[in-house]
Amino acid sequence: MATVVTYSNDNQRRFSKQKTITAATTLTPADTGKTILLPAVGKAITLPAVGDSAGVQFKFIVQAAVITTSWTIAATTAKIYGQVVEAGLVQLASAETTMTLVKTSKATFGDWLTLECDGTNWYVGGQFSVAGSFTTA
Description:
This protein is mainly beta. It has one helix at about 10-15, and strands spanning about 20, 25, 35-40, 45, 55-60, 70-75, 80-85, 90-95, 100, 110-115, 120-130, 135. Strand 7 and strand 8 form a beta hairpin. About 25% of the residues are buried.
């Protein structure tokens, strides 16, 4: 009788759940559950359409102070709702299309957002340490 041994590499599995963005990117439902790492130079990120995204969720973490270009995270329609705490104050998102993580060292190390879709809307939550580091439109 042959014995089958399988190996699991937890570090490799964890790494596959992260995605570093270095160019303008359109996320897909296949990226669900990933932590999106955001380095210092911002780019444009487009979310998948809500109708294709029921149950899709992302977490975004700022890896360094955003210095020269802001990060933008955009939905295809005005479907972003929720709230983000920014320097102790609540910033509301109500039927928004775009969220901006502001440059000039406002969005900084460890700031984060989560987004989850129910197939109709995107719901945002997060925490930012500096006033003026997060805006919606």
